[in-house]
């Protein structure tokens, strides 16, 4: 049982840091840089962006489910639940509301309609920053919890067992 808890703790930490790494790489590196590439038009960039962000969203949903299952099985402290659920609520808002709204906007742009100004991209960026901060906090807290779990048997074991 001890081994399965260690494995689940490490899996939780891994899921959280892979998730935040993917968000950072795609939302804050790939997306802005895509439009600086030679010969990339706005419609082409928007088309590529839709594909990439939909793929990222599916991976995020999978990693969030893995993190939730691990956290539930491990019965993590409430401070970990709070930050994990913050990231999950942001992800759900993006999945159920913001990505579909941005898709409608992208479809109109790809069909030749002018892009009217709105705040959806700003909201998306704010939500991404919130999600990144929540994931980093959750990852650090989960890592510290995993360390405590790993060291706990050493602190409670009789001296003869440690030799």
Notes on the protein architecture:
The protein has 163 residues and is mostly helical. It contains five helices and no strands. The protein is elongated, with a radius of gyration of 20 Å.
Compile the SSE list and pairings.
Elements: H1 2-34, H2 42-74, H3 78-110, H4 120-156, H5 159-162
Work out the strand percent. under 5%
Q: Flag low-confidence runs.
A: none
Helix percent reads: over 70%
- Category by helix and strand content: mainly alpha
Number of strands: 0
* Average pLDDT level: 91
Features:
single chain, 163 residues
Short synopsis of the structure:
With 163 residues, the protein is mainly alpha-helical. 86% of the residues lie in helices and 0% in strands.
């Amino acid at each position: 049982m001890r081994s399965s808890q260690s494995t689940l703790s490490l899996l939780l930490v891994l899921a959280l840091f892979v998730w935040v790494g993917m968000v950072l790489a795609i939302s804050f590196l790939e997306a802005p840089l895509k439009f600086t590439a030679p010969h990339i038009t706005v419609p082409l960039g928007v088309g590529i962006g839709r594909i990439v962000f939909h793929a990222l969203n599916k991976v995020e949903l999978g990693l969030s489910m893995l993190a939730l299952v691990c956290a539930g099985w491990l019965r993590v402290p409430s401070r970990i639940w709070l930050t994990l659920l913050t990231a999950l609520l942001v992800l759900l808002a993006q999945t159920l509301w913001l990505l579909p709204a941005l898709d409608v906007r992208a479809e109109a742009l790809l069909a030749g309609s002018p892009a009217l100004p709105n705040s959806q991209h700003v909201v998306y960026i704010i939500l991404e920053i919130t999600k990144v901060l929540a994931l980093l906090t959750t990852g650090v807290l989960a890592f510290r919890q995993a360390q405590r779990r790993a060291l706990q048997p050493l602190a409670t074991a009789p001296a003869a067992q440690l030799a």
